[in-house]
Amino acid sequence: MSVDSIPFKKSFIESQFPVSKVSKESYKERKAGGGQTLTSLGKWWGRKPLILIRAALFGLLLPATDNPARDREIFLKLLTMDDEGMWQRKKSSIPANELQKYLSSREKAKYFDNGKLRSGFSREEKEELQRFVFMRMGYDVRLKYCFRPEEIDGPSPKSWKKINEHLGTNSSTIPELIEELGIRQFGAPPSVGDCFCGGGSVPFEAARIGCNVFGSDLNPISVLLTWSSLNIIGGGDEITSKVIKSQKEIYDAVDSQLKEWGIEYNEKGWRADAYLYCNEVVCPECGWKIPLLSSRLIGGKTHTIIELEPNTQHKNFHIKVREGVTLKEVTEAKSSGTVKNSKVVCPNIDCIGHQSPIKMSRIRRDHEGGLRLWNKEDIIPLPDDIFQERLYCIRWIEEYETHGIIHAKKHYMIPDEYDLEREKQVVALLKERLVKWQQKGYLPSRIIQEGDKTNEPIRTRGWTYWHHLFNPRQLLILGCFNQLIQTKFVSEPKEVVVYNLLEIGKLADIKGIGCRSLVWNPHKSKEGHGTVFSNQSFKTMYDYCTRTLDVVGPSKKKNIHIFGDQTIIPNEANSVNINCDFWITDPPYADAIIYHELSEFFLAWYEKPLKELFPEWYTDSKRALAIKGSDEEFRKSMVDVYRNLTNHMPEMGAQIVMFTHQDANVWADLAMILWAAGLQVTAAWCISTETDTALKAGNYVQGTVLLVLRKQTSDDVAFLDEIFPEVEEEVKKQLNSMLEIDDKEDPNFGDTDYQLAAYAAALRVLTRYKQIEDIDIERELSRSRGKNEKNPLEGVIENAVKIACDYLVPAGIDSWVWKQLMPEERFYLKGLELESHGEYRTGAYQELARGFGIREYKNLQQSKKANMTRLKTASEFKDRDVGGEGFSASLVRNILFAIRQTKQEDDTAAGKAWIREYPGYWEKRKEIVELLRYFASLGMNYSMEQWQEDSKAAKLLSVVVEQDHV
To answer: Cross-referenced NCBIfam families, in alphabetical order (predicted)?
Structure first.
């Protein structure tokens, strides 16, 4: 029977999903940084990987048949994640040293001689060796040598033949297949909508693979980025070439103006490359002027530091630059700034503030009314302001020629009198233009509205307008740039003007001109600037940098075609009136990112040209309408949004909600929101989408949960107590289905996926009913709750996770033994299994603890550091941790102590003597041996090096206990 003759009842994503492979591809895309397709347009927070969107859409369009293995094979072929597809994506050769790791001794002798590939092999033979080794590699290793799926045209002709045979289609390209599958389901090519379009991932990728798309967002910056993704990145070669040409012209014109002014050149003809500034305050203890420096290190690679020399006469400090210092001096300079943890360390050794740092609140005089609020005309501090500003270092570029080759040498130097005169010239040039440029819209003139994030610059610096975040040099350069865009290039195609407008945002954030919050990073290989938005807030820096123009035009990418029709507008999510077959959304939740405030940084620059480019759009961040918080108003707003989307999709339509929380209460709220909106959860999958960046250190969520939803059509009614046994059955059914299709050699699911599957199973049961008699859903959504008051569904969800934790017995432990253990023992053993899989996220262990109903487990942890969490080994437990009550008196704890004794005494007699004293030793001997073998197996895992010695002791002890007799 062909697929087209089977009634479409369930999609592929509602029955299975290759979580592991999609996660790895998503991670690879994230790690590409600036090489990602859409990041070249500008900053947005939380863009989802394009491969995730593509996989989700294929998952919705492909049917689930009675041959799940074949369904999976075809799905992977479409995404070029199968063996043949990955070989097709291979872009670089595997080096000789890597090849040899995958060859047997005989194979090495055939191909290599003294570590080098033997001569005489033909190109075909070398290619055969590459393929032979490539196919032996694991998925993760292969990815290092592959393009991303989006960077190639799609499956090979050979793969298309198998795809068409299975699906009953006749396609040779992805857009052709999308059209065929859409017509089969909906009678037309599928339409995809996103009313929280953010950085544009969903509309862009949906349109690229052939869907018609609708994208909207309350925030006009988000809509601008989404429009740009489709019309500039997806605009084809002609638009790309025009953008590159115009951008070079703008950079050249600004560069010529700067040369004419002479504000970036010194008397030797050297051009400045970077300017380093710091704030300066008066110490309230000794009256000396203190330069506020987070570190005295300027260049880690060049070993460049600054030293503060006291000037007793003027009660201030000369700053001296030293290059090529010793490693010891670099280390000392790195940790010896004058600002630490929002406290000022006075460099005057005779000052009390030298030994006892002074709180910044005292410097700001918060108790006396705080800082002076800047006026619109202010561009530098007034003489009486608390925070003054000082240019303390310039990096110059000296160009010289040898043998016809131009070389460049960089010099860090303290500004001299001529440099300071040039700073005054910059201020004068800006003052001449400030009012006019603000009236014309070349410079920001918007007031900073108070808010959770925008209060920071007001409170800590007194800045009240957006242009206060920029110093005169930055405003002058960016103003020149904007003036050219709005005058000389206004007749260019809209795409060209928009791209250059977005370039201002990039210059203000990541490309170096920056603002007064641009970090200087002495640890970068090139000793350069960081980004303004390294986190999701407006941080005000005590020292910062600005760079001169660095022409980095749009990268020349493979031509991207957009096949689907598009509608992109700014709009409130609950007032969308366009029908779509699929809605894929990543909604705001619990103020995780306050988009409406953060985006005003860019809106201040784009406001006037946006009105001219898109007269039908508004240019307000619409703060008042933004969905905020997590209270009853938030819940009501979310119900309105998703009820509206449900009303604007067909009966066969579906939604995917992307979700990133791991809190049972939040999930319970989400269940009620979706339930009240007339939706039923049919599946959920957790994809790892975040990179392991230190900027996100903490217990942040690394996974994105995809909740698949259909319209709720049931009229069934249930009582809450009837739900619990149904949830238990559904959880076990879900876990069994995942275990059956999991690949033991290359797992599709991680430990947290199984826990999240329990959440999904609970939501599936809860949302399949029209009503649960015990719950007045409208009342629950609209009422405020007390501090520790729970959502009535929270117990159901917590119980689901407990069922999953109890059901998933660690490999190597008999289920009967598992059932005899107390919750703390299960948590410890299951936690060790998480470790063995390389899981160190704090949230994973917190989730596990919740599943077992454990509140306190710190005494079981060796490391509590975020993303470095692990449990104690047998030897790391202290003597006093054994005996007493609870886990300390448990069988597992006594076995661990016996292992420790065996290792310490280097004799199994000590361990045997201890464990023999455990009550019921002879009856529990079989269980003890099994647990000892479990601990012995840990040392064989590369992720468990800390268990090497203890596992040897456990193995020896297991043999002794097994052979023990009365």
So the answer is: DUF1156_antiphage (NF042963)
How far is residue 23's CA from residue 26's CA, in Å, rounded to a whole number?
5
Length of the chain: 966
Predicted confidence (pLDDT) per residue in 895-948, tens digit: 999 999 999 988 899 999 999 999 999 999 999 999 999 999 998 887 788 999
Rounded to the nearest 10 degrees, what angle do helices 664-676 and 751-767 cross at?
Answer: 40
Q: What is the DSSP letter of 286?
A: T
| Residue 708 pLDDT exceeds 60 | yes
Q: Which residue has the tokens 């008999």?
A: 814
Residue position matching structure tokens 């339509």: 653
Cα distance between residue 679 and residue 637, in whole Å: 16
Closest to 529 (Cα-Cα) out of 512, 541, 517: 512
Distance (Å, rounded) from C-alpha 931 to C-alpha 458?
60
Tell whether pTM > 0.70. yes
What is the Cα–Cα distance from 914 to 931, expressed in whole angstroms? 16
For residue 173, give the DSSP letter.
S
- Whether 35 and 704 have beta carbons less than 8 Å apart is answered as no
**By the 8 A CB rule, do 473 and 272 touch?**
no
Q: How many Å from the N-terminal Cα to the C-terminal Cα in the chain?
A: 67
| Order of strands across the sheet that contains 339-340 | 339-340, 343-344, 358-359
154/78 Cα distance (integer angstroms): 7
Confidence of residue 661 (pLDDT cuts 50, 70, 90): low
| Location of structure tokens 């470790």 | 835
What tens digit of pLDDT does each residue of 92-130 get? 999 999 999 999 999 999 999 988 999 989 999 999 999
d(CA 201, CA 223): 11
- In angstroms, the CA 164 to CA 276 distance is 61
How far from 841 is each of 797, 863, 871, CA to CA, in Å? 22, 11, 12
Query: Residue-wise over 817-840: b if at least 16 C-beta within 10 A, else e?
Result: bbeebbbbbbbbbbbbbbbbeebb
